[in-house]
Amino acid sequence: MSEIIDGKALSAQIKEGLSDRINTLKSKGITPSLTVILVGDDPASAVYVKNKHQTFINLGLISEVVRLPAETSQEKLIEQIEKLNKDDTVHGILIQLPLPPHLNSQIAISSIDPSKDVDGFHIENAGALLTGNPKFIPCTPYGVMRMLKSKDIYIRGAEAVIVGASNIVGKPMALLLQMAGATVTICNSKTRDLAAQTKRADILVAAAGKPHLINGEMIKDGAVVIDVGIHRKEDGKLCGDVDFESASKKASFITPVPGGVGPMTIVMLLVNTVEAAERKAGITPQREGII
Ligand code: GUN
């Protein structure tokens, strides 16, 4: 049987570790502050935004949500972002994705001040990560790296296989694992024999957005399995991209859904927002090593 990597417990520990940094900022009259822009009324996005907001409020940080109607124009969205760029009390800006189809997310993200881009999606931050000198690291892959570190999982020389090639998870995940010394394969929806790839993995990251895409037969004995997927089943229960039941019989370590990567994404957003506030205050962020 595999050992569970408990994202809920680890995220609580990371939160605890941030309190000194938050207190230092507060002693200077600075409260880290995040503004989330939510366009339209996608129910899943509304839940994610509410969870982020509650986490910030519970820690005594500032969280605002700007809700814009689904028919908001690109110009109006950019106008709103530029207003937040100029607002000195806002340290972090996050545009909840996906945006309604008539809006161009890359253009919107590129209009965020890179020093407030706590998602790490702006091309300046994506480029900084690509060239090995990251500033804001995208929250989900950052959280996964912290999960691997929490169990002293050896990355150097490991075969890492990532299923899913998104800008939010797959691509930055590949860069981080590669920087840590893994040999990385990124699979996508066109990969010919997915199981042949996943079976080679010492570290398997499932981030395809397909419920139960990965089962035990696709996993090597002793592999570390990280499940980034989150889906609501017809019975109302949550599940991931991995069939936990069969996968946990093969994996050495595995993340559950819920209570795995999800809470880590939120806590890394906290970390990035505290970093943004620290940089603005002239404090060099003390970043926990992940590589
Ligand atoms: N939608 C799904 N995941 C994310 C994320 O990490 N950031 C943003 N902004 N939107 C998302």
TrEMBL record:
Tetrahydrofolate dehydrogenase/cyclohydrolase catalytic domain sequence ranges: 5-119
Entries under Gene3D superfamilies matching the protein: Leucine Dehydrogenase, chain A, domain 1 (3.40.50.10860), NAD(P)-binding Rossmann-like Domain (3.40.50.720)
SUPFAM superfamilies listed in its UniProt record: Aminoacid dehydrogenase-like, N-terminal domain, NAD(P)-binding Rossmann-fold domains
Q: Which UniProt keywords apply?
A: Amino-acid biosynthesis, Histidine biosynthesis, Hydrolase, Methionine biosynthesis, Multifunctional enzyme, NADP, One-carbon metabolism, Oxidoreductase, Purine biosynthesis
Transmembrane spans: none
Occurrences of domain Tetrahydrofolate dehydrogenase/cyclohydrolase NAD(P)-binding (ranges): 138-280
Query: Keyword RNA-binding: yes or no?
Result: no
- One Gene Ontology biological process: methionine biosynthetic process
Tell me a Gene Ontology molecular-function term this record carries. methenyltetrahydrofolate cyclohydrolase activity
Give the pathway listed in the UniProt entry for this protein.
One-carbon metabolism; tetrahydrofolate interconversion
Keyword Protease in annotation: no
Q: Name one GO cellular component term.
A: cytosol
Q: Which reaction does it catalyse?
A: (6R)-5,10-methenyltetrahydrofolate + H2O = (6R)-10-formyltetrahydrofolate + H(+); (6R)-5,10-methylene-5,6,7,8-tetrahydrofolate + NADP(+) = (6R)-5,10-methenyltetrahydrofolate + NADPH
The EC number(s) attached to this protein equal: 1.5.1.5, 3.5.4.9
UniProt cross-references to Pfam families, sorted A to Z:
THF_DHG_CYH, THF_DHG_CYH_C
Quick one: which residues bind NADP(+)?
164-166, 230
Describe the subunit structure: Homodimer.
What the record says about family reads:
Belongs to the tetrahydrofolate dehydrogenase/cyclohydrolase family.
Job of this protein: Catalyzes the oxidation of 5,10-methylenetetrahydrofolate to 5,10-methenyltetrahydrofolate and then the hydrolysis of 5,10-methenyltetrahydrofolate to 10-formyltetrahydrofolate.
Q: What is this protein called?
A: Bifunctional protein FolD
